[in-house]
């Protein structure tokens, strides 16, 4: 028995490297008859750990099994197989051949002796027998037996603390398992440990609270939990702006955050909505007269929403004035460059969020600096129609003598990212589900026609711009339900607080959990959004899920027979709730209203399987699609160039009535009408 235990421990911890050096060039013939030319002085290397962790040879190779090397008679087992063939070499912690350790017999005997005497003379037990084994120090890989990495931050669960998963990999902990699919990982942990447990992820400890009824209990711990320190510290590292937690600045993070509430909520929201509507229509009108066009749906949405959103917040410089003062970049080129830089920066965001310094993400760093250059105060002060939000922020930053111009500009990059990174995919999913679901499309079009009709607008009429008030948008309950359902299916935000002191968290059930200072409390609303007890068929899109029997907003959702106070949290909650959530919902409604008003649209393949979300961005907000889908569209009531030519010819010569029909037929074939 003892030799089997020792062998199993060696199998799990050995990482030796067997090396030979070619004395002459020769032909190496492998067991499978393949032949390879080896040069003189090349190094031939065997890495037995690959063998030791092969699941075909050793079942559950990561698991310690004390009797793995015993046969059914309790004797030493020597029969191990791969591909149906018995292995001659299956256990090689001491090397092989001429490099086989000559002291291997003595080593085995002294380990046996130590264990025998230890168990003979001592009573021994682990402090926490349920804790996971310590990770191995991989820096010694290739040198033999790996040592336990006790010097790396590794802790044991203390009495009263939630179940603890340290993981096997130093520093990373369970980050890889979590990152592959956070929702499935947390579900598996919930089945095993319940609604609260702690995981080591990338050097930090996260205590996940999965019971939605306990979210309020976390929010009430404001005295012991800090959000702003975590948020501004993260933003400081990624965006490179000043750390406004530092008392040296005349404006702190609370002062800056109050600007959001004063400019993105309440009565002042109407001006922002009106400006967004004007910009959306201006951008969309560029599609007038092009006939049927095929483009990626994601490209279509982002092309329009990014520019309109950018201009709404940061204003625009009149092109005629800009050209007169010395060759400014044309607006279309400026916006294309800005969007390319935004995407390059945003693409690296998951890596930066995981802790990778931005200077190691070269393209993202250059993109961030390019965006900052566009948002320098010297440029913004020339723009017209700046939003109150940006004007107030500029005024605040200009009062801080410690900030240089580049730091001021980087704060605006963070504002640009916050306004676009989640709005773009949320708008995409909303339009995607409308176009995929005939019921949703019919209901949305009917609501748009009704609201526009009440306002005196005619779909497709470009002579009279669409103007909708905040109250009219709020009354569009069908679009509201579609957007909320799209958010439910695609949001994967994580709400995080940092414990400022040791304290005891009392959950809704009355159960308590000891929380250590410096640990993170994490709530993952996607668990709630995909709970079949709360949402029937949670993976399916249902356009009326958030409508009651009267067609108004539904707020009654239940779990365990109890009504949930919080049932949809794509924007966070409490102190971390997005202050721009009202504007975000309204701008998506505006886009959908105008798109349904001015465009004929159809997806290329309605029979295709539903798009999947890209889980690599889990924890950052709205998940984008794994890939784009093809969209065919045209600006409604548009007239193509050929049709205009035909109409002009017809007007000039009424004796040639066939000309218009002939041109129209050509247009139908070539333009796809």
Automatic annotation (TrEMBL):
Domain of life of the organism encoding this protein: Eukaryota
Binding site for heme: 578
Family membership: Belongs to the cytochrome P450 family.
One GO MF term attached to the UniProt entry: oxidoreductase activity, acting on paired donors, with incorporation or reduction of molecular oxygen
InterPro entries: CYP450_sterol_14alpha_dmase (IPR050529), Cyt_P450 (IPR001128), Cyt_P450_CS (IPR017972), Cyt_P450_E_grp-IV (IPR002403), Cyt_P450_sf (IPR036396)
Source organism of the structure: Scleropages formosus
Pfam families for the chain: p450
Biological process, per Gene Ontology: bile acid biosynthetic process; cholesterol homeostasis; cholesterol metabolic process
Annotated keywords: Cholesterol metabolism, Heme, Iron, Lipid metabolism, Metal-binding, Monooxygenase, Oxidoreductase, Steroid metabolism, Sterol metabolism
Protein name in the entry: Cholesterol 7-alpha-monooxygenase-like
Obligatory cofactor(s): heme
